[in-house]
Design goal:
By secondary structure, the protein is α+β, with helices and mostly antiparallel strands. The chain is built from three helices and four strands, in the order E-H-E-E-E-H-H. The strands form two sheets. Strands 1-4 form a two-stranded antiparallel sheet. Strands 2-3 form a two-stranded antiparallel ribbon. The structure holds iron/sulfur cluster (SF4) and FE3-S4 cluster. FE3-S4 cluster binds next to helix 1.
Length: 104
């Protein structure tokens, strides 16, 4: 599976949902997750994310985020089309410490 990680928080560009062939993204208020049971590992979302927040589960940058993706993909609603991203998304791109800002 692929995993959405910290830099998506407050950036939430949503370009990823437009390319996913199996519509396995789920949306929270300021973050998206991938359902690990539905992702077919095609990899097309990874280069589409302007925040470079998506990695394969084999990447060490995914480690702390796999549980979060698995959990919230069963709680949050499915998203299949790009909505309006946060107005200040570029200001948050690359900032550290965004894990604490994830709206659950
Ligand atoms: Fe969807 Fe493919 Fe990304 Fe998995 S790797 S979330 S199937 S686009
Ligand atoms: Fe997040 Fe990147 Fe998608 S910022 S919403 S994973 S395009």
């Amino acid at each position: 599976t692929y995993v959405v990680t910290e830099n998506c928080v407050r950036c939430k560009f949503m370009d990823c949902v437009e390319v996913c062939p199996v519509d396995c993204f789920y949306a929270g208020e300021n973050f998206l997750v991938i359902n690990p049971d539905e992702c077919i590992d095609c990899g097309v979302c990874e280069p589409e994310c302007p925040a470079e927040a998506i990695f394969p589960d084999s990447d060490e940058r995914s480690a702390d985020w796999m549980e979060i993706n698995a959990k919230y993909s069963t709680i949050w609603p499915n998203i299949t089309q790009k909505g309006t991203p946060p107005a200040d998304r570029e200001e948050w791109n690359g900032k550290e410490g965004k894990r604490e800002m994830l709206s659950e």
